[in-house]
Amino acid sequence: MKREKPINVIVLKQGMEQAEKGGYALGSFSPRYTPMIAAVLRAGQKTQSPLIVQISSKELVRYSITPKEFADEFYACIESEQITVPVVLHLDHTKDMAVIHDAIAAGFTSVMIDASEKPLEGNIADSREAAEYAHRNGVSVEAELGMIGTTDFVETDHDEELYTDPQEALRFVNETKVDALAVSCGTAHGVYMVKQPSIDYNRLQAIRKLTPVHLVLHGGSGVPAEMMNKAITLPGGGVSKVNIATDLELAFLGALGREERMTNEACRSLSPEDLEKGRAAVEAAVTDKMLNFLGCAGKAESFDYQTNQ
To answer: Which Pfam families would you find in this protein's record (predicted)?
Structure first.
């Protein structure tokens, strides 16, 4: 049975088109624990920011959550928190089409197929298959070209980095028909320990000039605000979606005086006082990103729901 979605729960393509037009980026926030979804949504409502709530395939496994459990909590919070700002429910880094099928059935409005470790032909084939299935079901698709490094292996399982080639991006987008493209241009997943973040702005501009789809920057945690602002506001269109996950979990664990990750069930078993303490920290972290990092605060008021649905 197909889930009925509120008008403000939108597909990624619609959100990114509005973001590029408005000169801001959508924050794609991964709460990782279902009790933290409410905190992310509260920050969006408070700052009147369009936003994305996401979880990756590896996070689903690591935190012992199913796509349906995550989606059910998301939609319950949309109602209970009286969320009216535009929101996308996004499945991040996924290699398995079965997980994509489950997420779409559960009510996700966007999915990401990540076949970036494959040769170009294999990446194109997998991404095309995902796009065809998702589009038949009214869902947006993100794919990755190049390799985005990682420091903690929560989202991806490779730490090598391979920058996205603009000419390959042109072919990739034309042949796959994906709606969004995650590009590798200097950022990495996780916490920057030795390597410092950098962004190849010329590469970003070259890719955006050649391709009709909007660009995604993974590894937003730890990138200086002025660096990100330049990437978002590049002439001709820059980055329209920025993934932020690690900063939220660090804020949550820090508020509780913990260092070790927990399962989703363990998080749900916390006392009401600890849960609210964690939620307050996550809400503050997301609010800070919206106000000082993404340029999206206040943009919900001018969001056009009639465009590109």
So the answer is: F_bP_aldolase (PF01116)
Active site residue 92: yes
Reported as a single tens digit per residue, the pLDDT across 205-236 is 999 999 989 999 887 667 888 988 999 999 98
Contacts 24+ apart (CB under 8 A), 169-173: 169/145, 169/207, 169/210, 169/211, 170/210, 170/211, 171/120, 171/124, 172/120, 172/123, 172/124, 172/127, 172/143, 172/145, 173/211, 173/212, 173/213
Give the pLDDT of residue 158: 47
Q: b or e along 105-128 (b: 16 or more beta carbons within 10 Å of the residue's beta carbon)?
A: ebbbbbbbbbbbeeeeeebbebbb
**What residue segments make up the domains of the chain, in order of their start?**
12-292
The residues that bridge with 239 in the sheet, in sequence order, are: 215
Q: Above 60 in pLDDT, residue 153?
A: no
3-class DSSP state of 110: strand
| 89 strand-pairing partners | 53
List the CATH code of the domain at 12-292: 3.20.20.70
Catalytic residue among 72, 92, 96, 159: 92
Nearest to 185, CA basis, from 159, 209, 216: 216
- Give the 3-state secondary structure of residue 16: helix
Among the listed residues 258, 259, 252, 303, the one whose alpha carbon sits nearest the alpha carbon of residue 277: 252
